[in-house]
Amino acid sequence: MKTVSRVLNNEPHVRPAVRQRVELAVRELGYRPNLAARQLAGTRSFIIAYPFNNPSPNYITDILMGAAEFCRDHGYHLVSEPVDLNPDAKTVIQRMLRTLKPDGVILTPPLCDTPRIIEQFEQSGVPVVRIAGGRELYGRSIILDERAVSRQMVEHLVSLGHQRIGFIHPHPEHILAQARYLGYLDGLAVAGIEPRNELVRQGLFDLASGVAAGEELLSLPMPPTAIFAANDDMALGVLQVAHRRGLSVPGDVAIAGFDDSPSSSIAWPPLTTVRQPVRKLGCVAARMLIEEDFETPDLSCALIIRESTASKID
Amino acid sequence: MKTVSRVLNNEPHVRPAVRQRVELAVRELGYRPNLAARQLAGTRSFIIAYPFNNPSPNYITDILMGAAEFCRDHGYHLVSEPVDLNPDAKTVIQRMLRTLKPDGVILTPPLCDTPRIIEQFEQSGVPVVRIAGGRELYGRSIILDERAVSRQMVEHLVSLGHQRIGFIHPHPEHILAQARYLGYLDGLAVAGIEPRNELVRQGLFDLASGVAAGEELLSLPMPPTAIFAANDDMALGVLQVAHRRGLSVPGDVAIAGFDDSPSSSIAWPPLTTVRQPVRKLGCVAARMLIEEDFETPDLSCALIIRESTASKID
DNA sequence: TTGAAAGCGCTAACAA
DNA sequence: TTGTTAGCGCTTTCAA
Q1: Which residue of A189, B13, B228, B250 lies most exposed, with the fewest beta carbons within 10 A?
Q2: Which pLDDT score, from 0 to 100, does residue A313 have?
Q3: Does residue B182 carry a pLDDT above 90?
Q4: A258, A273 Cβ separation under 8 angstroms
Q5: How far apart are CA B194 and CA A265, in angstroms?
Q6: Banded model confidence at residue B314, pLDDT cuts 50, 70, 90
Q7: CA-nearest residue of chain A to B242?
Q8: Model-level pTM?
Q9: Mutate which of B94, B99, B306 to test chain A, going by most A C-beta atoms within 10 A?
Q10: Phi and psi based region of residue A161 (left: phi greater than 0; alpha: psi -120 to 50; beta: remaining)
């Protein structure tokens, strides 16, 4: 009898007694449903796709861990596929969608902010959850309050006595991260500090742009006493400049980053930064795709204070 | 007519003319075969599984990139699943194997060296490729010559004038990595330097154990003038100790690591280390599972010389 | 070398 | 609430 199917899929209209009997048999026989057959006959594939690009390895792995774990514990499977941002992307995505028929797709920056990528998913109608997407595009988006925590960071620096606080912009294509700059302005405003353009530099999220910005900022006639970079790699670039110039950190210049990357805690001195709940983001994304009525929960970032800012006044 | 199947699977016994006609039609219609149907009817699933544990994010991501890219370009798909080393691992693996029926499995440390994990795969008979597996267990193994490159590292240090060279052991459960110690001994032997136990410390691959070993080594009455740690995190721990003690690197002590992690190049000073072709490892692993007659190629590691050892004598 | 038929192991739709 | 039947889209087997 194929009531078994009903039990396995947790459908209603099954008497508890029957259900129990089936469950027992399943356990005794070590029965495992065949994914392929379920996919072919049913409407679901039990597959979530995670196409990714430009891996910041820590971010990717954390998202993957969170999402894959949730999938695993709910009878789903996570398929990850690298997608380059070249014209072939279209083919790759089409093939993925058509052969795999995933029940949902998780996207992270920069894919989730690339209109011509999102278009492909929109056309196929597959449910999409975008993590940290900064644009209004197809699919649901999980957003973090990066602005508030950036303001907190500035407040932290101000509380240490800093008045001239430099800032290094996030990569211009990471839309949502632009909020970090707004938070920086918020923080200055709260402290009644006039923002100064000469203390702000553009960055590209890599070490080199952090080094360049650091060189410029620390060469100013009146250099900042603290520099807040929009990510850790750039902050570590500034740290490198400080070391090279024999400046003490945080004595001569305090440095803060964003991401809580492994390098940030391993650096010398360890870097003050912001921790995002990345693994949870992956988990929540998967959950939003798998559970019908699951709403986006609030996810907040945390300030991680380490020695690169530490107490200046003591 | 179902000759189409023959064309798509590149089977023989099809006239070139017919083949061309079919291929044209396929392209025009944008036809994509349905994975589930192929799995159900055929003997292959076109799925490679990558269960992983204890992610060193860079390593995992690189393996994943290499493997997923190869899979993607050969009609396969990579499913990654986190596996904890607790008793539940058995259930997780069984479920994965039975529902997914992967055509092959890729394993990395520590899973590839855990007998009771490998057993599960052996029982199911699924083809396994173990990357950097140090034990003789089920499945084919991709091995790197970590011993030779470790010897080169010591030779490099000796060439800079170092005679007292400390070593921090790899994590005891990473079997293959023990070769790094043998390479260290080789290097000393080549230089005619007597190995000294007091210059060697056990490590656990993390920052803390590097700090601990660094403290001990640098507190010796006759401290080493160079320290070679079996991975970057531990080397960065030693670097932290040096900074704290106001020692100059490489002036007072040269420091070398192993892995070429992102932190190693971002550190101050940038860390001399060893680069493994990790992404290629992932690619090769996938290829060994997908292409019938593909043999393990030679994969060598490269010494990356940066400022943390630099020239001592100059 | 090609075509026709059976059926992989499930779920959907319907009948009982 | 349960059982029956058809069929998902391919590959396999076998006949032509």
Answers
A1: B13
A2: 39
A3: yes
A4: yes
A5: 36
A6: very low
A7: A268
A8: 0.92
A9: B99
A10: left
Q: How far apart are CA A99 and CA A110, in angstroms?
A: 24
Contacts of A165 (CB under 8 A, 6+ apart): A154, A157, A158, A184, A187, A188, A193, A199, A224, A225, A226, A227, A228
From the list B40, B57, B80, which residue is nearest A58 (CB)?
B57
Nearest chain A CA: its distance from B268 CA (Å): 6
Taking residues A199-203, report their average pLDDT: 98
Interchain CB distance below 8 Å, A263 and B268: no
Do B34 and A80 count as a contact with CB atoms less than 8 A apart? no
pLDDT at B313 over 60: no
pLDDT (average), residues A65-85: 93
**Cα–Cα distance for residue pair B45/B79, rounded to 1 Å:** 12
The predicted pLDDT at position A9 comes to 67
Burial class of residue A73 (count of CB atoms within 10 Å of its CB; 0-12, 13-18, 19+): exposed
More confidently predicted of B19 and A142: A142
For A39, the closest of B36, B79, B262 (CB atoms) is B36
**Residue B20 binned pLDDT confidence (cut-offs 50, 70, 90):** confident
Which amino acid, B153?
A: M
- Measure A33 CA to C3 C1' (Å): 33
From CA A112, how far away is CA A141, in angstroms rounded?
Answer: 9
Stronger pLDDT, A284 or B86, i.e. the higher one: A284
Instruction: Tell me which residue of A143, A151, A152, A173 sits closest to A277, measured CA to CA.
Output: A143
CA–CA distance, B137 with A70 (Å, rounded to integer): 30
CB atoms closer than 10 angstroms to residue B163: 14
Mean pLDDT of B155-170: 97
Which residue did the predictor score with more confidence, B223 or B21? B223
- Confirm if A272 and A305 have CB atoms less than 8 A apart: yes
Contact A268 B61 (CB under 8 A): no
> Using an 8 Å Cβ cutoff, are B46 and B9 in contact?
no
pLDDT value at B1 more than 60: no
The protein residue nearest C6 (Cα–C1') is B41
Measured between CA atoms, how close is A193 to chain B, in angstroms? 32
Task: State the nearest Cα–Cα gap between B193 and chain A, in angstroms.
Answer: 32
Q: State mean pLDDT over B115-123.
A: 94
CB-nearest partner of B80 from A80, A94, A268: A80
Contact predicate A276/A144, CB 8 Å: yes
d(CA A24, nearest CA chain B) in Å: 17
Out of A37, A65, A80, the one facing B68 most closely (by C-beta) is A80
Residue ranges of the alpha helices (H) in chain A?
3-8, 16-29, 35-41, 57-72, 89-100, 115-124, 146-159, 179-191, 207-218, 232-244, 262-266, 278-290
Beta B302-304 vs B273-275: how paired, if at all? antiparallel
Query: What mean pLDDT is predicted for residues A284-295?
Result: 90
With CB atoms and an 8 Å threshold, state whether A32 touches B99: yes
* CA count, 13 A, side-chain hemisphere, B141: 17
